[in-house]
Amino acid sequence: MTSTSLANQTIAVFGASSGIGLAVARGARALGARVIAIGRDRARLAAAAGAHTLEIAACDIADEAQVAALLRDIGTLNHVVVTAGGVVGASPLTALDFDAARDAIATKLHGSLLVAKHAAPRLAPGGSIGFTTGVLGRKITANTVVKTVINAGLEAAVRQLARELAPLRVYGVSPGPVDTANWGPLSADDRRARAAKLASTLPVGFMASADDTAQAYLFAMQARALTGTIIDLDSGAQVGG
Ligand SMILES: NC(=O)c1ccc[n+]([C@@H]2O[C@H](COP(=O)([O-])OP(=O)(O)OC[C@H]3O[C@@H](n4cnc5c(N)ncnc54)[C@H](OP(=O)(O)O)[C@@H]3O)[C@@H](O)[C@H]2O)c1
Q1: From ligand 1's centre to the CA of 1, what distance in Å?
Q2: Ligand 1 in contact with 139 (CB < 6 A)?
Q3: What CATH number belongs to 10-233?
Q4: DSSP three-state, residue 229
Q5: Is 234's C-beta closer than 6 angstroms to any atom of ligand 1?
Q6: How remote is the CA of residue 240 from the centroid of ligand 1, in Å?
Q7: For the chain, which terminal residue's Cβ has fewer other Cβ atoms within 10 angstroms, N or C?
Q8: 27 lines ligand 1 (CB under 6 A)
């Protein structure tokens, strides 16, 4: 067996106050890692960390000074994961709110690159950088141009940086629909209806949970030969629906 254990590894997860990032943070902690869970709001992080003995740190991923200072404070790292991303509504291009689009790009696309920029010099040998893309990066769907360009851009960055930052490893995880706060504010009924509708289009026939999706990051951090690639852990969304 030549995979690398996560026991006693230091892992920073940007976007860990909820959803997929929180599931990655908890999963890595359960495997014995020291985990720093990062988001913008310390109170939210503290509530999310609960009894999982996660360390927490507040940082806006879109702010380079904050990202640089946090990673300087953390020091040497074994793995960094970015799942931070805001809610991005569907819109035809002709009605697109460009201020909102700029914010979304600054958070997820620029923010992921900022983390990679400042984490790379601090990653120990064997270290990895994980980005989060999404099925809409390749699956062309009406009115989702902002999500498409962000996710497609990050997928291109994975391939580019896997070469540029080698021997550090760089990978992406592309989720399909996962019922999290990333769907935006919905009533419980609307959320249930949306989840049921999406699940019926997915080859697996159900909606993946954040924990299901976290498996891809936990695998990627431990798979020492994995780099420059995207793991489509998407319930089959790329081929179904
Ligand atoms: N859920 C889906 O259906 C789905 C599908 C495909 C791809 N994805 C992608 O998966 C990733 C994770 O989303 P999720 O579903 O887990 O959503 P989520 O539950 O809303 O989690 C997003 C996380 O990002 C953090 N965050 C947002 N803006 C930030 C900023 N500027 N700086 C630092 N942290 C920030 C949030 O914390 P604070 O707000 O407390 O800062 C939160 O912890 C996103 O990139 C999303 O695009 C999700």
Answers
A1: 33
A2: no
A3: 3.40.50.720
A4: strand
A5: no
A6: 24
A7: N
A8: no
Task: Read off the tokens for 109.
Answer: 């696309």
What is the per-residue pLDDT across 182-223, written as a single tens digit (0 to 9) for each? 888 899 999 999 999 999 999 999 999 999 999 999 999 999
- Backbone φ and ψ for 39, nearest 5 degrees, come out as -160, -170
The two tokens of residue 1 are: 């067996």
The CB of 222 under 6 Å from ligand 1? The reply is no
Residue with CA at minimum distance from ligand 1 atom 6:
134
Q: Is 39 in the pocket of ligand 1 (CB under 6 A)?
A: yes
Q: Is 179 helix (H, G, I), strand (E, B) or coil?
A: coil
The pLDDT tens digits of the residues spanning 124-136 come to 999 999 999 999 9
Q: What angle do CA 234, 126, 34 make, to 5 degrees?
A: 75
Distances (CA, A) of 87 to 7, 84, 101, 199, 239: 33, 10, 10, 20, 24
The mean-pLDDT minimum among 1-15, 80-94, 106-120, 145-159 falls in 1-15
Rounded to whole angstroms, how far apart are CA atoms 41 and 191? 24
